[in-house]
Design brief:
255 residues; alpha/beta; six-stranded mixed β-sheet; binds zinc ion
Length: 255
């Protein structure tokens, strides 16, 4: 775990007799504010929920628009946020109306950090089965809104990254490792591993070379062809394409 997220105690008063202790914790449920795009504090939501006759705020955490994480209901207590799932889950309220508004980058970052921390603490697998949007467990709601729901994969992927970082970890150049940097490296690696099989798939800069190699009979493949009668199993990596273009420039395929 990189480091623990900063969780702010906003001084909500609880009568602990009103709360029940949760026996197990194996799920995290994300929520949004609803139809009104606002940046409500944990205390404000506490007031709303008291007004509904509840013990107080039903969510365990509130992630404000600037990414600040506020404490809601005590983490150990049974929440009131996802009908039928409260006795084994933690509820995170992300401020905003995400059927129309977009979550801020700071909110995504804080959610990922918080999810990583909670998953580590309760030994919850960091995957989409255990980290869900409210709508996935109660089908009468669109919560946490389409736009936050669309980012759950990203939050889970970032959370897994956070969980795998050491507190002191930094790159050899002394700069701090970031998820974005790691993702770029993974993307590059995947790009390097990608195979190009048909002329259509091959990038434009390599097409004349590959066409020449086919015409010359240098590149035959197994005989499997596409709808144009051209080889369909060229099976070149990007590096191989590059090398072929260099060879072509050196005149190796002009015979
Ligand atoms: Zn909800």
């Amino acid at each position: 775990m990189k480091d623990e997220p900063k969780i702010i105690d906003t001084g909500i008063d609880w009568d602990e007799d009103d709360l029940d202790e949760r026996d197990s914790t194996d799920m995290i449920v994300l929520h949004h504010t609803g139809d009104t795009d606002m940046d409500a504090s944990a205390k404000q939501i506490h007031g709303w929920h008291l007004g509904q006759g509840w013990a107080g705020i039903g969510y365990h955490f509130v992630v404000r628009k600037k990414g600040t994480i506020e404490e809601g209901r005590p983490e150990w207590a049974v929440g009131s946020h996802a009908f039928g799932e409260n006795d084994h889950s933690i509820g995170i309220h992300v401020c905003g109306a995400f059927n129309s508004a977009q979550p801020t980058d700071a909110q995504i970052e804080s959610c990922a950090h918080l999810v990583a921390y909670l998953c580590e603490k309760y030994d919850i697998p960091i995957d989409r089965e255990h980290i869900v949007g409210h709508r996935e467990v109660n089908d009468d709601t669109t919560c946490p809104g389409d736009n936050l729901f669309a980012k759950l994969d990203l939050i889970v992927s970032k959370a897994a990254w956070y969980a795998n970082q050491d507190a002191s970890e930094s790159d050899t150049d002394g700069k701090e490792a970031t998820w974005e940097k790691d993702m770029e490296a993974i993307k590059k690696e995947m790009d390097g591993a990608k195979r190009y099989n048909t002329l259509d798939e091959i990038p434009e800069w390599a097409t004349p070379t590959i066409e020449k190699m086919i015409a010359n009979g240098i590149l035959k493949g197994s005989g499997k062809t596409d709808e144009n009668g051209k080889p369909a199993d060229i099976d070149f990596s990007k590096d191989m394409l590059r090398m072929a273009v260099y060879n072509d420039r050196a005149g190796l395929y002009d015979r």
